[in-house]
Specification:
Shape: globular
Bound molecules: S-adenosylmethionine
Number of helices: 9
Length: 252
């Protein structure tokens, strides 16, 4: 789906209070407080997801990245309408994250409905192509996670193989994430459309550290004990919001 050109976006982005004009100067300094969780959404589109997440998790810090000028303009305007201390926008290409973030600085990378780039000659542009996955590995803290949602089964299959090849560990997977209510995870603009049409949402969470090692690392924080769940079906005794909360707790 092509984004309609927004004529005011270029000028708006020059003045927007939510846009970080010189993100390289913030390298290593994105967290407002030590110990805070830093989320980075790459390809945020109109910004609805990061805005809703920033409201839902006010203690966390959110950086949304978008390379399309019109989409970035709309995201900036949305963020400016309700200036939040914990949310900002980078208007730029996600392939530059290593210029803007220090190694290990981020805790969660969100990839929501990334462009599938179905033609092989464009495969490098996929946000789950090996070049990007290498950068995410470096960007993430040792207990960091990547949360990917998509409507595209081919991109989902491709990405699973690429994540495994890059050395990530599978923590959670669903081929119909919205079959259950998930108040802990807001719908993105694209997701809203797919859900309205009854299309399934694929979702997967990857970690840099296997769950068993992570459980050891965080034993003192994780009073629930043990690293459980991997799929929605075998986590039946625990609600999904509780699982998500526990998953997020692991990176605290
Ligand atoms: C299909 S849209 C999804 C938007 C939003 N995440 C959602 O779910 O509603 C994908 C977005 O990712 C952006 N994008 C694609 N590659 C990117 C990159 N390398 N860096 C930053 N943004 C990118 C596109 O410009 C587009 O706005």
């Amino acid at each position: 789906m092509r984004m309609r050109r927004i004529p005011w976006a270029a000028d708006y982005l020059k003045e927007s209070a939510s846009r970080v004009q010189d993100p390289e100067t913030r390298k290593g300094d994105w967290k407002k407080e030590t110990g805070q969780i830093l989320h980075v959404e790459i390809g945020c589109g109109k910004g609805g997801y990061s805005a809703a997440m920033a409201d839902l998790y006010p203690q966390d810090q959110f950086v949304a990245i978008e390379k399309n000028e019109s989409a970035a303009g709309l995201a900036a305007r949305k963020f400016d309408e309700q200036q939040r201390e914990n949310l900002c926008l980078i208007y730029g290409d996600g392939s530059d994250i290593d210029l803007w973030f220090a190694p290990g600085e981020a805790d969660v990378v969100h990839l929501n409905f990334s462009d599938p780039w179905p033609k092989k000659r464009n495969a490098k542009r996929r946000l789950t192509a090996p070049g990007f996955l290498e950068q995410y590995w470096s960007l993430l803290s040792p207990s960091g996670k990547i949360i990917m949602k998509t409507d595209n089964s081919s991109l989902f299959e491709y990405s699973i193989l690429e994540f495994l090849k890059a050395g990530f560990y599978l923590e959670e997977i669903s081929v119909d994430f919205r079959r259950n209510e998930h108040p802990e995870d807001p719908l993105t603009e694209y997701e809203q459309k797919f859900v309205e049409k009854g299309q399934p949402v694929y979702r997967v969470i990857w970690t840099k550290t296997p769950a068993s090692a992570e459980a050891d690392l965080t034993e003192s924080q994780n009073h629930a004990g043990g690293a459980g769940l991997k799929t929605e079906s075998n986590g039946a005794e625990e609600t999904q919001p509780a699982l998500f909360e526990r998953s997020i707790n692991k990176v605290r």
